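User: Fold this; C-alpha cells only.

Assistant: Input:
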Amino acid sequence: MGVGLEVLVISRDAAWVTRLGKVAERGGWPIEARGELPARGAGAFERVLVVLDRSLAGAVPARTVAALRELCPGASVALACAEREAGPNVVSEALTSGADETVLKSWSDDRLTARLSTLRDRALATDARVSADGGLSLDRRARRAYARSRAGWLALDVTAPGFELLWRLLEHEGRPVSRAELADALDAAFGREAGPETVSRRILALRRALAPWPGTVESARDGRYRLVSARRRSST
C-alpha cells in the first residue's frame, strides 16, 4: 500500500534538506521541504513528523512549535540545530518549547535515522480511530482498515487514497463532509490535486471495500458524503 507525505522539513539549509531527503528515502518516508514557516491560519493537514530548523524557530520557539502543532495535529516535532546552536541548554529548550526532541545536524545518518524513526513511530502508534459501533478500526501507522468479524478483525482491501478519505470521514463520523474537503485530504496526503470526479470514484471503491462492515458511506446533499456506522443507521 502506498503512503502519503509523512515528514515536513522546514529549513533554508539546502545541504541539510538534501541530507534529510536521503535519510527519509532510506526509511521509506515520503517527505516535503519548505523554506518558510506555514502562514498562521493555514488549514490543518496531516503529517507524522515535523523537523524544524532552529534558525527558523524565532526568539520564542514555543510559539512556533505551538503553531506547527495546530497545523499538524498529532505529529512529532523535532528541532534541528547546527553545532553552533547546540549550547548546554539545547535539550531543555526543546522541552520547554513543546518540541518532542532535539537533533543535531552533525549526527551520523544512522543516528538521525534511528532518532527520527522513533519520533515517527511514536506519533503513528497513538494515531488510531474506531467507529461509533466499534466495528471499524483504522491504524494510521500501518494505513490499514479493519472490520470486526466473528473471528476477530478482518483486514479490508482499502487503497492508500481510500484510506485517506476514510480517515477524514471517520474523523467527522455521522456528519456530512464536502467533496472539496475530501479532495483537500487527498491533495495534502499525496501532493497532487484531486478533483471532484476523483473523489467520487474513490468513494465508490471505498464502499465496496467496506462491504464486510455493517456501516457505509452515504451520499448527502450538495455533493457531500457521510460515514454512518451500524449503530447510527439503526437509530435513524
